[in-house]
Amino acid sequence: MLLVLAGMLGGVIGTAGGITSLVTYPALLAAGLGPLQANVANTVALISGAVASSAASRQELRVHRRRLPWWAAVAVIGGTGGAVLLLVTPPGVFAWLVPFLIAFAAALILIRPTIDEPAAAAAAGEDTAVAGWQRVVAAVAFFGVCVYSGYFGAGSGILTLAIVLLLVEPHLVRANAVKNALTACADIVPAAMFAVVADVAWWAVIPLAVGSGIGGALGPAITRRADPKVLRTAVAVMGFSLATWLLYRATSP
Fold first, then answer.
1. At what angle are helices 91-115 and 156-167 packed, to 10 degrees?
2. What stretches of 116-227 show up as alpha helix (H) in DSSP?
3. Is the dihedral of CA 64, 18, 155, 29 positive or negative?
4. Residue 130 in 3-state DSSP?
5. pLDDT for position 112
6. Please, is 227 exposed, middle or buried when counting C-beta atoms within 10 Å of its C-beta (0-12, 13-18, 19+)?
7. Residue 9 has what pLDDT?
8. Which is the most buried residue in 51, 147, 154, 213, by most CB within 10 A?
9. By the 8 A CB rule, do 77 and 222 touch?
10. DSSP string over 78-109
11. H or E segment at 41?
12. Which residues contact 188 (CB under 8 A, 6 or more apart)?
């Protein structure tokens, strides 16, 4: 029941522009999983939502049907690299890194409004050309984000959206659709790898996946009535608190 509720809350927060993993990951820790096993379970459980959201965005993705396969290939390669890195990282090292990764994700929530600023110019019809060097920078940055997504992932959606908005697609709706598709591509191979070679706690994955699906479906109706600033602040505070506690636990003798 804890994981179902956490999945529902995480799904709602994700639709409000927050980071789902800041809710689902600590819930997995509370259920008794270690940091590494919780991260594996989190990746496997949330892939269904990523795939479903990208499938629902087919109409917006048609604009980028020629270039999207190239970006998808970068996402798959980067995500796979991150998953391999996670599998070969000693659990103690991962436990020490997680607090900093969570703090980074929480900080992204607070700066989220600045990521959406390019959409204002797009809404006014002020599309700008993208230079060749900008495309190279975007590809390199995106590859790094995908490696991070395969390794841990919290906040990778916001980072991907920032890159897409600034250098690929200035229209927010289409940019979000591209982000959904690329996030799914970055996560699907790690999820499959973890399901085959990692120690997956399926008893935790299934209820979390069910809750995440429900939360994702109910989220839009709930967040329309909520103040986004309050939600972002609450999730960020929770993220920084969790990071502090995990750092204390990782460094305590």
1. 40
2. 118-123, 132-151, 156-167, 172-197, 202-223
3. negative
4. coil
5. 60
6. exposed
7. 85
8. 154
9. no
10. HHHHHHHHHHHS-HHHHHHHHHHHHHHHHHHH
11. helix 35-55
12. 47, 50, 51, 76, 79
Contact (CB, 8 A) for 181 and 54: yes
* CA 30 to the chain's CA centroid: 21
Q: Give the residue from 62, 64, 169 showing the smallest Cα distance to 122.
A: 169
CA pair distance 48, 115, nearest whole angstrom: 26
Check residue 203 and give its pLDDT. Answer: 95
> Closest Cα partner for 220 from 84, 80, 56?
56
Residues with Cβ within 8 Å of residue 110, at least 6 apart in sequence = 232, 233, 236
Look at residue 9 and give its three-state secondary structure. helix
Terminal CA-CA length for the chain: 33
Which residue in this structure is represented by tokens 């002020």?
126
> Which residue type, as a one-letter code, is found at position 24?
T
Phi, psi of 252, deg, nearest 5? -75, 145
pLDDT value of residue 31: 92
Q: What is the identity of the amino acid at 79? A: G
